[in-house]
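### Sample
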Amino acid sequence: MIYTITLNPAIDYVVKVNSFEKGGINRSQYDYKEAGGKGINVSRVLQQFGQASTALGFVGGFTGKFITDSLTEMKIPYDFVQLQQDTRINMKIKTETDETEVNGLSPTIGEAEYQALLAKLKHLNEGDIVVLAGSLPHSLYKAVYREMVSLLHEQGALAVLDTSGTPLKEAIQASPAFIKPNHHELAELFEEEVREDHDIVRLANRLHQENGINHVLVSMANAGAIYVGDGGIFKLHAPKGKAVHSVGAGDSAVAGFIYKWNDTKDARKAATYAIAAGSATAFSKTLCTQAETDVLLEQVEVIDLSQR
Ligand SMILES: Nc1ncnc2c1ncn2[C@@H]1O[C@H](COP(=O)(O)OP(=O)(O)OP(=O)(O)O)[C@@H](O)[C@H]1O
Ligand SMILES: O=P(O)(O)OC[C@@]1(O)O[C@H](CO)[C@@H](O)[C@@H]1O
């Protein structure tokens, strides 16, 4: 069974304006609200691929109800811990040329609520895949992902991680099976500048060799991604197209990787599907469908870097 954990979900309030005037009154051309947060997005894309998953994490208040209602409508199972405070709202302001994000403050998670989530994880076991994704609510300590990855591994479940900053630095000590930092997050992790592909390969290889992470997929937006792991070392060029809405492209890549990996246990196929899914999301108004992903699959160019 696949589970996603979103400790800090959000309603994504997407607003399209003609041009954004700082300090002025901006009126939207169109806007819409979606159940968001990285783990929830992974569940949504997996659902598009016909792959069931259960969404876990914390939700609260009227915003939390919006999220559970949306998931019910999408037929995505969930088992959240309920909070007193409201789930945050993240605003994504789009113009023709750029995207500005204002992500809301997280609600407070108490110790009892955190323990209630851990109790749910204790039921997971051998063969389960668990995706831990997104930022941490401010009230949780920075090592919670590390603690969760260790717990999951003790139970024989496979942990997938997509986060950044100190939570990532902590959690890689527990050797998650798959991580998907983007190149900025990789640079921040090692406190190094990442300019060339060989910088990425070297740092991703350290994560693979020294931290025992089986699969490291470093995404680079329109430049695609570099994969280093059990399946070798290769660069994946992203399909070309017009970026319409790139929020969730990274989550779609995570979902694409897990979906194909689960089916084939072939890292190259999984990474290729990941890039097609990420690009399909970037090219559409919301998260990708399977048909949109499949159309792009042949356009992902894979170049072997292991001999260089
Ligand atoms: N402009 C784009 N054109 C083509 N593909 C894109 C574009 N932006 C993103 N992608 C695809 O999505 C994948 C993930 O994108 P990115 O590296 O931006 O992830 P991310 O930083 O985690 O994104 P986010 O936080 O917005 O979800 C890329 O590897 C690529 O395949
Ligand atoms: O603040 P975080 O947890 O880092 O990211 C949250 C978020 O930006 O990530 C998703 C896109 O990846 C959105 O649905 C959501 O609003």
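The longest strand covers residues 28-36. This sample (Tagatose-6-phosphate kinase) is used throughout the tutorial notebook.
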